[in-house]
Amino acid sequence: MGKRPPLACMATAVFACCVPAYAQHLCSSDLHSGDGLGHALAVSGEFALVGAPESDALGPSRGEAWLFERVGGAWLERERLLPELSQSTVRFGTEVAMNHELLAVLAMGETVRAIDGSPISLPGRIWVYRRVGRSLERIGSVQAPAGALGFGTELCFLGNMLCVGARHDSQGHTNAGAVYLYDVRCDGLDFRDTVRGANIGPFDHFGTSLSGDDGWLAVGAPADDDVGPQAGAVYMFQQVGDHLVERQKLIPSQAELLNYAGSEVSVFGRWLAVGMPGSDLAGMDAGTVTVFENQDGTWNEVSVLTASDATPGAAFGHSLAGHDDCLCIGAPLDGERGPASGAIYGAQHSTTQGWSVAGKLHSPTTQAFDYLGLEVAVSKGYLFGSARNSSACGMASGAVAYFPESDLQTMEYEETCFCDSSPCPGDGTGGCANSIGPGAVLSVSGGPSILDGDLEVVVSGLPPSRMTAILFGPQGPPFSVGAGILCFDGPYHRVASGRANSNGVLETHSLMKEPRIQRDALPGTTWGFQAYYVDHQGPCTGQVNTSQAIWVTFEP
């Protein structure tokens, strides 16, 4: 997206709808520190388009973008998109958009010096591509028109029409904003129209966010001041023939001073979600999301969502992506895993309960200043969340976490042995502190069904390339082992082992086929998993360490 306004010993986790249990990552093959992979994200069907605007592949911050394709259960790198060096642009991949056939990538204009030394910002440019099978062909590009300040703030497709936000456009009022529309042809792009809200005023920033679906275009104006300075608003346009007709101006009932309603929007089917990351309803700048429903052509407010564990400054609602009756919400300033580590929430709609927040997600590698949830997307059974400073793919290179959705069943488990009283305490999210950080974190994927047999274990925060064992046993009081703590009562057994990868992550495969688990994990019984590993360079006495424990009650 474009730049937006400012943004215990035991636990139970519940996952449902678009809130699965673990993450993997989209990582490009040529990624370097500071590339910013995930600064922009768009997903459609089996393809994902990811911007890395700070990449130096063709020169300082010239940028690039990567196209990934889902093949089976994996997302594989398919094509690398690079800017044209003949154009005076930088940060290619700052913004991206995608539908079933078309892709768009924004590059910012270079800043050059005039004869007198004053800076001059050259206009940005948007490249458009068509996907033909697994190949891409470039259709053409459009340059920012004169006066279209902030051109490319946001991009989206509405059918074969490219919609381009320019939130600082001042051709009507100073910084009022505008949206430019282009028809995409087989051999190029044609300018169609410029859209402005009927009563936008100075500094409304109309066009900060865009979302199109089923003939509707939602346009955010987060600095609209109808109910208070920068309270925000959303304009709804309907496609009628070759024109967009303004139908409604929406202001969430909770909108007030500095809420920035419309910083993000997502229209999907009969639903419209409006982000208010500056809302104080659940705490100062904790953020809220308002959901509207299209009822016979009129959009009516039906729900207000807040984070289930709302904290001040989390910016819940900074990013949104909806699909069917499922909504995914980014909170990139959430601090559960460290300052601005970020998080993703899932919300779902049911006929009996309406809209509700179902749960919260982190990547196993989430840490301070990752900004997980800067962008989110949903498509074909997967939830995506970008973290432009993540080290999951390399030191601070950026990454996109993707979470396979469950079959909508709910999975509950308990976690213990967080190592909060050991001589070498961690940060309360995993095991005891180790040689690379606050400790190893164990998580599970799949479900507790014995028949399904898809339960797997993922361990992150391990020293790279270190041999690690997964232990299995009954629950008991904690006892020390080396620098770590085990929480088993009675015999426990190794059910899997392997080396952590270069990012300190170990994943199991076919865990439920292990004979010990098949023998002991009967319906209704509860068994635990812990990681156990050697760490000679750890900060505390002992050559071995552990993760926290997770307890699963198995089902038939």
Characterize the structure shown.
The chain folds into two domains: about 10-410, Methylamine Dehydrogenase, Chain H; about 415-555, Sandwich (Immunoglobulin-like). The chain is built from one helix and 42 strands. Strand 17 (about 210-215) and strand 18 (about 215-220) form a beta hairpin.
Cα Rg: 24 Å
Proportion of beta-strand residues = over 45%
SS-derived structural category: mainly beta
The CATH topology of the largest domain, please?
A: Methylamine Dehydrogenase, Chain H
Number of helices: 1
How is the biggest beta sheet arranged? 7 strands, antiparallel
Name some characteristics of this structure.
556 residues, mainly beta, Methylamine Dehydrogenase, Chain H, 2 domains, four-stranded antiparallel beta sheet, 1 helix, globular
